Amino acid sequence: TSGRNAGTVNVTAGGAITSNSSVNGTQTLNVTSTTTTATSVTFNGVVGGTSQPTALTVDAHNGVTVAANMSINGDINISADKDTNNSGALSVSDGATIATGGNNLTASFDDINLNATGAINAGVGSVTLTTANSGDHFSVGVNSLPLTGPNLSGSELQRITAATLNVNANLAVG
Predict the structure, then answer these.
(1) What are phi and psi of 155, to 5 degrees?
(2) Which positions ≥6 away from 49 have C-beta within 8 Å?
(3) 173 compared with 112, residue with greater pLDDT
(4) What is the secondary structure of 26-93 as a DSSP string?
(5) Percentage of the chain with pLDDT > 70?
(6) pLDDT tens digit sequence for 123-163
(7) Distance, CA of 173 to CA of 56 (rounded, Å)
(8) What is the helix (H) or strand (E) element at residue 12, kind and residue range?
């Protein structure tokens, strides 16, 4: 998708959604996988490389992968485990950054993986991380704890830039 400069772009599919090309334009971008079976959303191409969308909402049931830089000039809302069946991770590949242009990022997931060099940058905005299942624990600052739920290691935590980091879950800090 390239060149659209106003309004809203909705991408909806009953299966997995993969974007292999760059996505540019100053519109609101909504990406939704509607099937409750193992469907994921993958961004292999740069999002917002030459012109940034003004907002992004992504709904998936089996994970969201950001494999190239994503630059949105507005709020980002990601639900990687929409059906809350413990199978939807938010993954940011090595060398990729999700950037909000100083706006907010809200993400819910079963697990989070920033790989070795993946990052989230909200600048002066906030980052809110939530477990998809309300009963899960969220481990922060340790490599692993014997609890159910996502883990954000100390090195991953260092690659999140935000004025405020909110973790909405049963928190386990190591």
Answers:
(1) -70, -35
(2) 22, 24, 69, 71
(3) 112
(4) SSEEEEEE--SSS--EEE-S-BSSSS--SEEEEE-SS-EEE-S-EE-SS-EEEES-TT-SS--EEEE-
(5) 87
(6) 999 999 998 887 787 888 765 555 677 888 889 999 999 99
(7) 30
(8) strand 8-13
Q: Are 4 and 27 in contact (CB under 8 A)?
A: yes
Is residue 30 within 8 A of residue 9, CB to CB? The reply is yes
Torsional class of 149: left (φ above 0), alpha (ψ -120 to 50), beta (otherwise) = left
Residues 6+ apart with CB under 8 A from 36: 61, 82, 83
CB 101 within 8 A of CB 71: yes
Q: How far apart are CA 50 and CA 149, in angstroms?
A: 37
For residue 23, give the DSSP letter: B
